[in-house]
Design brief:
single chain, 215 residues, alpha/beta, four-stranded parallel sheet, two-stranded parallel sheet, 6 strands
């Protein structure tokens, strides 16, 4: 497994160590900016150099922040569209030929707000809607050799920058049938399922405790 990150050096090093302890030589980390034009090729080349093949691509990098209507700037758009749509598109395009050799899979991390926009997050919601459309489009374009699916998380972990106040968190939980936030492991299990399901493509699986029933 090749794990890319822009920051979080300590966390990445810890994960790499844990995975390699469980299975020697199974993981490596790579740091870089996904918006750099050379990033897609660099990522795929690094994976092939280390592992000699490519089976699964998970596009999970994302930017998430609110921008009220009337205050939107081109820089907000460039950051959100770049991380949430442009990078997954060009990384998938670069990886597709290698994935096709092994009948591989792409799993995109979308969002339940791709279908039901989140108030105050218009730009973010639009970029994730684009990623949902890209997921379905690539499922057509890359079939039958590559499967492409998505996972749409609900409330998994609260942002650490205070974007959601206590009252808003309580409201979200009140409209979540399972009555709790999810965990990163819930998302990982859904990604694993879609990566291994040989007759599933073009689907976006909501992992949201049932919240999309209400919104």
């Amino acid at each position: 497994m090749l794990a890319h990150r822009r920051g979080a050096d300590d966390d990445a090093a810890r994960l790499e160590k844990e995975l390699n302890a469980a299975r020697a030589g199974s993981a490596m980390k790579l740091k870089g900016d996904l918006l750099a034009p050379v990033a897609p090729k660099a990522l795929v080349d690094a994976a092939l150099q280390r592992f000699a093949r490519l089976d699964i691509l998970v596009n999970n990098a994302s930017s998430f922040f609110p921008v009220p209507v009337g205050e939107m700037e081109p820089s907000h758009w460039e950051e959100l569209i770049g991380a949430n749509l442009r990078a997954p598109l060009f990384i998938s395009q670069q990886a597709a030929p290698e994935l096709a050799k092994n009948q591989g899979a792409i799993v995109n991390i979308v969002d339940i707000h791709a279908e039901r926009p989140l108030k105050g997050y218009a730009l973010y919601s639009v970029t994730k809607a684009g990623l949902a459309a890209l997921t379905r489009s690539l499922a057509l374009e890359l079939a039958p050799r590559v499967r492409v699916n998505g996972v749409a998380p609900g409330a998994i972990a609260w942002p650490e920058d205070g974007q959601f106040e206590d009252a808003e968190r309580a409201r979200i939980l009140a409209t979540t049938p399972l009555g709790r936030v999810g965990s990163p492991d819930d998302i990982a299990r859904a990604v694993h399922f879609l990566a291994c399901a040989p007759y599933v493509t073009g689907q976006i699986l909501a992992v949201d405790g049932g919240r999309s029933i209400f919104i």
